[in-house]
């Protein structure tokens, strides 16, 4: 599978862009664990054109995480075009590696984004969505891709026709989450329409499927049944960055890896924590790791007091000591089995 001049090989796995999750430390970890491409958190177009420091900082990427996509969102043509131009030159504006791909977020369902017409809110205005996409493609040098959903609601699943229109204005790959905006993340993802887009003889660009892929067998079934070119993994990576290695191993060998032992989970959590401190400093590096740290060990027996230490301490040494305590005291504990979507 290729996007522009980027060759990802056969059946690649991508890390989905997620707000407050896919920061640089998490992206590096997922890349090390086998993600073929990673994406930044959502970068607001209006924030970029106002030179907001937080928005610009989100475009900072590193060579070790490449290839990396910078994802932008917004609902106004002018600001989206200007933001895309800035993402195209992110190496100069934000420093670091920059973008290999510019991805447009037409999929986020949260009210503060979709409610004002951005993200999946654009599904109610497909003509505007296509016009913005055309303008972005024409404004930048990097490959432009889109991430979207099946439609706004059950009565407006427009993705098959919309995919053709987006391809026709020049995008080089399309990611489809198998739910409508109204579903948010409820119910099961419907891959049949993702498969219908891929099976459409007019479609020539790669189609990336997204939604409810939590292990190797589900990934293989999605590739085999629906013919997608790649799979994007989002919520299933919470507290589980090694999911990319697990799925890659299954796709390559047909065998499932045993559950990762607690001491090895601790080692990954410690590396994640150290990266967060390295790139964000104190106290931000601690505050923004708390969500991740609680997820790494969800489901361990009699863990609540230790979890509270992890998510309330502001002392890096205390957090590292707590991680060591987990590695020792739960080394032989039954490995947890939990629904990642309950996190």
Question: How would you explain this protein's 3D organization?
Answer:
The chain has 343 residues and is an alpha/beta fold. It folds into two domains: 2-253, TIM Barrel; 262-329, Non-ribosomal Peptide Synthetase Peptidyl Carrier Protein, Chain A (Orthogonal Bundle). The chain has 16 helices and eleven strands. The chain has helices at residues 24-32, 45-49, 53-57, 77-88, 90-93, 111-114, 126-139, 159-168, 192-199, 216-226, 243-253, 262-280, 284-287, 290-296, 304-312, 316-329, and strands spanning 2-3, 6-7, 13-15, 38-39, 43-44, 68-73, 101-106, 144-149, 174-177, 207-210, 230-233. The strands form two sheets. Strands 3, 4, 5, 6, 7, 8, 9, 10 and 11 form a nine-stranded parallel sheet that branches. Helix 9 links the parallel strand 9 (174-177) and strand 10. Helix 8 (159-168) crosses helix 9 (192-199) and helix 10 packs across helix 11. It is globular and about 55 Å long. The model has no long low-confidence stretch (mean pLDDT 95).
Question: Proportion of β residues?
Answer: 5-15%
Q: What oligomeric state do these chains adopt? A: single chain
Secondary-structure element series: EEEHEEHHEHHEHHEHEHEHEHHHHHH
Largest sheet descriptor: 9 strands, parallel
Q: How does the helix and strand content classify structurally?
A: alpha/beta
Distinct helical segment count? 16
Gyration radius, to the nearest Å?
A: 20 Å
CATH topology of the largest domain: TIM Barrel
CATH 2nd-level architecture of the largest domain = Alpha-Beta Barrel
At the fourth CATH level, what is the homologous superfamily of the largest domain? Aldolase class I
Q: Could you name the CATH class of the largest domain?
A: Alpha Beta
Q: What shape does the CA trace take?
A: globular
Beta-strand segment tally: 11
The parts where pLDDT drops under 50 for at least 5 residues are none
- How many structurally independent domains? 2
> Overall mean pLDDT score?
95
| First-residue to last-residue Cα separation | 32 Å
| Helical content band | 40-55%
